[in-house]
């Protein structure tokens, strides 16, 4: 098994766990399901294997990878120390969609994994296939999301095939993923503070129930302007998920103001020849009769929006949509991660509806 993607001219092998683990041990790349999104895995100690991951994705080499482990004991082999705050978070949320940025132990991981930083991002996924694959491979598994760089993260094996067929050693198909958005990336201070570097599957409210001093990296707010600090998570600065059509997010003082503005804007765009669609919550579906609607599920369970968002963005491209409006959701709980990804996909284009009169 060659470790370069050029060694995989066309095959997209659906692998059994045991074969997949053998490929990882041999320095090849394998896509596998986690509870968040599909990852593209490689032995995190093997520089050629890690380079093959960057090559297959077309990922900038200054964007470090998350290392996936299957047992708590593996963590101590990778990092210098785990402070009390981090330990409390691990106890509460592993296995699960929480990634911890910790001081890296020198000389164990390929330097390409950390992109030259003195920290490493580690998580233990809550998915039986991922856990068994990592355990059987017997190595820490570096795995970014298994999409081409700039595409929405894959939530099905089919999405991985669309992006990476012919570029990787194979895939373990575990069906659709559960959370649908990536893990929450945090840094935990010795003083009990927790900084969210990337919102994700574990909410700020869940973190605060364990460690009350939770803040969000000020570099995260994408609309923050030229004077904003650089984000501490390097990947956050890249444009991601952008559909080919022009996507804007619509927010406003009431649902009626939002749906009214969306109806008017879609009519105007449609009249000028745009192929239009709306990303809407089910509570408002009846307001868009005659429009192409992609459902984000119910506002009452934002888990559905998380599960569906990336698939819907891919569908917009498949369906040749050129003009897309998306309803905003309240940025609380999982809504923080949904809005973060939606705003990134929209290049932070937001239209604010005025209150409707009469
Ligand atoms: O749910 C997930 O986290 C998925 C699944 C496959 O586990 N993985 C994932 O990986 O989303 P990726 O590579 O697409 O995103 C990793 C994020 C990037 O924003 C990266 O910059 C950040 O984690 N990151 C990695 N190492 C870091 C470090 N040492 N310090 C700060 N941020 C780091
Ligand atoms: Mg990614």
Automatic annotation (TrEMBL):
Keyword flag Transmembrane: no
GO molecular function: L-threonylcarbamoyladenylate synthase
Domain (YrdC-like) ranges: 14-202
Compartments where found: Cytoplasm
Known EC number: 2.7.7.87
Domain of life where this protein originates: Bacteria
Gene3D superfamilies linked to this entry: DHBP synthase, Threonylcarbamoyl-AMP synthase, C-terminal domain
Keyword Cytoplasm annotated: yes
Enzyme class: transferase
Main subcellular localisation: cytoplasm
Swiss-Prot/TrEMBL keywords: ATP-binding, Cytoplasm, Nucleotide-binding, Nucleotidyltransferase, Transferase, tRNA processing
Catalytic activity: L-threonine + hydrogencarbonate + ATP = L-threonylcarbamoyladenylate + diphosphate + H2O
Family per similarity comment: Belongs to the SUA5 family.
Function: Required for the formation of a threonylcarbamoyl group on adenosine at position 37 (t(6)A37) in tRNAs that read codons beginning with adenine.
Name this polypeptide is given: Threonylcarbamoyl-AMP synthase
Organism of provenance: Paenibacillus terreus
Organism ancestry: Bacteria, Bacillati, Bacillota, Bacilli, Bacillales
